[in-house]
Amino acid sequence: xxxxxxxxxxxxxxxxxxxxxxxxxxxxxxxxxxxxxxxxxxxxxxxxxxxxxxxxxxxxxxxxxxxxxxxxxxxxxxxxxxxxxxxxxxxxxxxxxxxxxxxxxxxxxxxxxxxxxxxxxxxxxxxxxxxxxxxxxxxxxxxx
Length: 144
Fold this sequence. Notes:
globular; disordered N terminus; Lipoprotein
């Protein structure tokens, strides 16, 4: 009887149009450079920024297409910069032994000229469909 009940419930709610948005966290990311700097605290003047690194969804071992970088100030205000471009990172694919993440690299040019002076934490957000993955970077940026 348990088997038939499980079988009967298996079809419930399986309509993909009813799928809800899912947000999850991962530790599978790294910010290589901000304007060429690899420091843990990168000091920059507000303006155009060149941000490079890698990130992937560890639970699905994929590289969601949409990627953005988020700076968060001490008051909790978030500043999102979208439009990151994916690129090959064969070193990452080799390190994790997965060809599915060979495009884990990203490059993002951001105009941060409107951000006030201060120190910001950094997060990378990736999304595809209704799934969003966020990854906290172990670096900060200080606008001077």
